[in-house]
Amino acid sequence: MGSLRKGEATRERLLETAERAVLDKGFSATSIEELIAEVGITKSGFFYHFRDKNELALAMLERYIETDLSELSAFAERAKQLSDDPLQRLLIMLKLYAELLDGVTPERSGCVAASMAYQENQISRQVAARMRDLVLAWRRHFRSMLDDVAERYPPRDAVDLDTVADMCAGVLQGAVVLAKMLKDQRVMGQQVMVLRSYIKLLFQPGLN
Question: Is the model's pLDDT at 4 over the cut of 50?
Fold first, then answer.
């Protein structure tokens, strides 16, 4: 049991170290050699946990997906507890997400999925397929909330709700990339709040 826990801890350290490196300089520039040196294991120790770099990438992505979708679900549930109005629930959820991004430290900012997507020729088809699954999961999450909103508040402009759902996901993820490029953490929350304003203007009744 002790060796099992030790092995799990080593695997987790490898994932955390790899994530920091990928966010800092990209997937292709991150080598197995630097990871094992930082974690303090042998190359055979690395291959005990991951068959190759692409298997590591898949594990990193699965870890990111689980955390990201859990956060979205938690915010949606919290918003549901705070309001019975579907539009207010979506606006609350976006505000909660903006507050989360405002609390992200510079060294932890970035998007693992985006970092890999930029270097698609360096990753396996399985990893690329899981990234597509993530994007579609984002779409389903926001589309479900948008459907509830549109049922009560018809949009004030002719829009495709799948496109709006993709925009929501794109702003949330793109804001992280933009902040990293500008080296300004404030950009993340600001972008989400602008998205929130757009959603309010799109659906809120009684506006001229």
Answer: no
